[in-house]
Amino acid sequence: MLHIYRMDHVAQVATELNPQVDLLEGLFGFRRVRTWDNPKAGTRGARLAVPGSWGQCWEVLAPAGEGSALQAHLDEQGGRPGLHHVAFEVPDVEAVNAELRRRNIVPTAESPGRWLEASLSPPEHGTGALCRFFGPGGRAVCGEAPDVSRDEATGVRDEPDLGIVMIDHVCQAFRDRDELAAWYEALAGFVQVWRTPTDEHPDMADLVMSVPGSTISWEIIMPRGEDSFIERFWDRSGAAYHHVTFEVADWGRAMEACAHHDTPTFGENEGETDGARWRDVFIHPKHTGGVLVQLFWEERPGVWVRSDKIPPR
Predict the structure, then answer these.
(1) What per-residue confidence (pLDDT) applies to 309?
(2) Average pLDDT, stretch 69-92?
């Protein structure tokens, strides 16, 4: 089994660094804490603090120099930016490498003894959720290094933002939620927290797992019925990341920020559980730099998660 200390960051790849960082600081209220330009590693990047997500950051990566692996990744995606990987800190990178290879998972990139990148989905289902693993203090995983990085402390911007409280979960699409949940439990000790009844929704079913050392959960969604949006996503992208969900402190403030930044939303839902209200909505990837974003608000902690969920089997 992989031994994970904690989830360190969620990373997205962008064609250009600064416009994406500006978007995250403006609409999302993130604050950059470090930037780097490392053509030797093929990467320019920025690390941003996310309100409320202590110990977990957001990173933006962009190609730099010739022969950049990030540029090759973008080319494979038809030039489309989006989520790239989730990074975990582990006590022993070589032990992770050995365990992955034992399970027929070959790293897609690595710096021996320092970090490695691999798709964590069962290999018989093709490329899935890309993850990076690094040892204690090994922040060079994305090209960050003392000779190319600089600390940056940006102040509060004088414009409305979403009022994000925390990153709640990362979501992955898969054909069979129970198969993937069992895989993650055996591989990395993820623990199932809740699941929707199979017939709760006409086109999907989901479950959520806790991740060792992280306040960010892992959601698995699978298709149901005819013409499921997840089936269409699977046909296009396979077992890839589907969306990232953030909690916001005030629904009205979040919607006002979207309007201020000319950012439309879609798929809004609202409900009430035990007398407490909740709401959620999505922002299309074309308005976020390639990431499907879900926002939710709850009047009392736990009512949104409980709104249509049952305990795991």
Answers:
(1) 56
(2) 94
Q: How many residues does the chain have?
A: 313
Q: How far apart are the C-alpha atoms of 180 and 114, rounded to whole Å?
A: 28
Mean pLDDT over each residue of the chain, to the nearest integer: 91
Cα distance between residue 182 and residue 97, in whole Å: 20
Residue carrying structure tokens 């009392």: 300
**H or E segment to which residue 266 belongs:** strand 266-273
> Distance of CA 271 to CAs 201, 255, 281, 307, Å?
15, 17, 12, 8
Q: Is the pLDDT of residue 310 over 60?
A: no
The superfamily CATH assigns to domain 6-147 is: 2,3-Dihydroxybiphenyl 1,2-Dioxygenase, domain 1 (3.10.180.10)
- Per residue in 172-225, pLDDT (tens digit) is 999 999 999 999 999 999 999 889 888 888 889 999 999 998 889 999 999 998
Q: What is the DSSP string of 37-88?
A: EEGGGTEEEEEEE-TT-TT-EEEEEEE-STT-HHHHHHHHTTT--EEEEEEE
Q: Where are the beta strands (DSSP E) in 56-178?
A: 57-63, 82-89, 109-111, 115-119, 130-134, 149-151, 164-173
Q: What is the pTM of this model?
A: 0.94
Superfamily of segment(s) 164-306: 2,3-Dihydroxybiphenyl 1,2-Dioxygenase, domain 1 (3.10.180.10)
Same fold, 6-147 and 164-306: yes
All structural domains of the chain with their residue ranges: 6-147, 164-306
* pLDDT at res. 307: 46
